[in-house]
């Protein structure tokens, strides 16, 4: 089995989502607690974005979206 086949099997499994979540969580903690990167992290989570599909539009920030959904 080559590395490509092993990678495909990992992506298909449920383990891959958990690994990505742990990596994203770890990076977010490191960036938010780093004095040099915290301002960029803060500006990212409070930046506004909009999603429009047809006549329906959603305008929010990332932090509002996360707090509303969870």
Distance between the termini: 40 Å
Binned strand content: 15-25%
Q: How many runs of DSSP E, i.e. beta strands?
A: 2
The stretches of 5 or more residues where confidence is low (pLDDT under 50) are none
Task: Tell me roughly what share of residues is in helical segments.
Answer: 55-70%
Derived from helix and strand composition plus strand pairing, the structural class reads: alpha+beta
Q: Average pLDDT, to the nearest integer?
A: 85
In DSSP terms, counting alpha (H) and pi (I) runs of 4 or more, how many helices?
4
- What is the multimeric organization of the chains shown? single chain
Order of adjacent strands in the largest pleated sheet = 1-2
Taking all Cα atoms into account, the compactness measure Rg is 17 Å
Q: Could you spell the SSE succession in H and E letters?
A: HHHEEH
Total count of domains: 2
The biggest sheet, with number of strands, parallel, antiparallel or mixed sense and barrel status, is: 2 strands, antiparallel
Note the overall shape. flat
């Amino acid at each position: 089995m080559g590395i490509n086949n092993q990678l495909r099997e990992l992506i298909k499994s449920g383990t891959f989502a958990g690994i990505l979540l742990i990596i994203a969580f770890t990076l977010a903690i490191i960036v938010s607690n780093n004095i040099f990167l915290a301002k960029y992290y803060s500006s990212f989570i409070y930046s506004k974005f909009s999603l429009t599909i047809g006549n329906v539009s959603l305008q929010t920030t990332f932090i509002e979206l996360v707090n509303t959904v969870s």
